[in-house]
Specification:
Helix content is about 40%, strand content about 25%. It has about 240 residues and is of the alpha/beta class. The chain has two domains: about 160 residues, P-loop containing nucleotide triphosphate hydrolases (Rossmann fold, 3-Layer(aba) Sandwich); about 70 residues, no CATH class. Helix 7 links the parallel strand 7 and strand 8.
C-alpha cells in the first residue's frame, strides 16, 4: 500500500480545467518530484492533495484512507503537512512562536519533545528562536517553514518551490536539508520545484506535467538522462 496515492483527479479554477486526470503514487520513505513549466499544474496538484482545492473527479488516499472529502486541518491531523510556496511564515512572530503555530494539532505535552527534535534538525533556528521571523535571511525563513511543518510530525511532507528566491549557495543548503530530513526522519516527500536539476538530484522518482497532464514518469536518474527532459527542463541542448 502506497503512503500517498492520487487517483485520476480533475480540478478546476472556475471554468479552467487545471488538472486533467492526474494519477501518481508516493511510496513510504520516497522523495518524488513533480517537474514542469509554469502553469503545468504542479502547485495545483499540491493544493488539491492537501484539501485546499477539491477535485471534481478523482480520489486521494493517505495510507489507504480516502482523504478526498476532508478539510485541510483534518488532513494535517491524518499525517500530511505542506511547506507552501513563498514560505508564508508569520513574519511578526518569533521563530519559537512560528513553531508553536505549527504544533496546533499536537498534544501540548508532546510539543517540547517536538521542539527538541526540530531544533536538532535545524540547529540554526535554535540559535534564533527568540528572533522575529521576518528578520531572518531567506534561507533561514525556508528552514523555518520546513520546521513549522515538521512540528506536526508528518508522515508525508509536501514542498512547493523550496528554492524560490534563494541564492544558489542557499539552494544547495535547502536541498541538503531535504535529503537529511528524508533520511534521518524517514519522512516521505512530494516535491514541486522549478529547479528540475536540483529536484531530480535528490528524488527517487519523478513525474513530468504538461498543461494538467502527466506526460512522463520514471526514476529520477532516467529522467535526468532523458533527452526531451534535458532540453525542456534542464537547459541541456
Amino acid at each position: 500500500m502506497a503512503m500517498l496515492e492520487v487517483d485520476n483527479i480533475h480540478s478546476y479554477y472556475g471554468s479552467i480545467h487545471a488538472l486533467k486526470g492526474i494519477s501518481l503514487i508516493v511510496e513510504k520513505g520516497e522523495i518524488v518530484t513533480l517537474i514542469g513549466a509554469n502553469g503545468a499544474g504542479k502547485s495545483t496538484t499540491l493544493r488539491t492533495v492537501t484539501g485546499l482545492m477539491k477535485p471534481t473527479i478523482g480520489q486521494i488516499f493517505l495510507n489507504g484512507e480516502d482523504i478526498t472529502p476532508l478539510k485541510p486541518h483534518w488532513i494535517v491531523r491524518k499525517g500530511m503537512a505542506m511547506v507552501p510556496e513563498g514560505r508564508r511564515i508569520f513574519a511578526r512572530l518569533t521563530v519559537a512562536e512560528n513553531l508553536d503555530m505549527g504544533a496546533f494539532v499536537r498534544d501540548k505535552k508532546e510539543v517540547p519533545k517536538e521542539l527538541d527534535r526540530v531544533f536538532s534538525l535545524f540547529p540554526r533556528l535554535k540559535e534564533r528562536k527568540s528572533q522575529v521571523a521576518g528578520t531572518l535571511s531567506g534561507g533561514e525563513q525556508q528552514m523555518l517553514a520546513m520546521a513549522r511543518a515538521m512540528m506536526t510530525h508528518p508522515q508525508v511532507l509536501l514542498m512547493d518551490e523550496p528554492s524560490m528566491g534563494l541564492a544558489p549557495v542557499l539552494v544547495e543548503t535547502i536541498f541538503e536539508t531535504i535529503q537529511f530530513v528524508n533520511k534521518q526522519e524517514g519522512t516521505t516527500m512530494l516535491l514541486v520545484e522549478q529547479n528540475a536539476q536540483m529536484a531530480l538530484s535528490v528524488a527517487n522518482r519523478g513525474y513530468v506535467l504538461e498543461t494538467g497532464n502527466i506526460v512522463l514518469t520514471d526514476s529520477a536518474e532516467s529522467l535526468r538522462t532523458n533527452e526531451s527532459v534535458q532540453k525542456a527542463y534542464l537547459g541541456i541542448e
